[in-house]
Amino acid sequence: MTLLILQACSNQSNLPDWIHGNWITSLDDETIHENWKLQGKCISGENYMHYENKFQKERLRIFEENNMLLYQIIIEKDTLVFKCKNYRDSDTLTFVNNQNPFPKRINYAKPKSDKMSVWIENTKNDPNGIFFTFKKVK
User: At residue 5, does pLDDT exceed 90?
Assistant: First the structure.
């Protein structure tokens, strides 16, 4: 019994708890919100954007499976899954899905004070990538 409890705790400790909280950024005329909360063995979140009088919402989940960290995005009826292999004790998480047209890579850098860098790209250091600086909302 004790072994199962320790295993569950150690599995949860591999999650990037630093992503937890409410974050906001803007890009051109868009305001983008990401809200994350720890829920058992996963981190669930939502991303929503306001632009040109439109509203888009994505449901997000980060969870561990088969020694990988998975990032799941649900937009209406579509589900995308990105995989991160090197995530334990890492300050930058890179989630990859090479079958997705754009982005193929979603990157999160551990926050410095109340700012978190997030960028999406098709290749590492992609000149066409999009960079966001999220600010934590109190």
Answer: no
For residue 6, the model assigns a pLDDT of: 33
Please state the pTM of the whole predicted model.
0.87
Quick one: which H or E segment has residue 51?
strand 42-51
High-pLDDT (> 70) share of the chain, %: 91
44 and 27 Cβ atoms separated by less than 8 Å? no
Amino acid at 135: K
Show contacts of 125-133: CB within 8 Å, 24+ apart. Answer: 129/103, 130/27, 130/103, 132/25, 132/27, 132/32, 133/25
In the prediction, which pLDDT does 13 show?
Answer: 59
- Stretch 106-123: mean pLDDT: 96
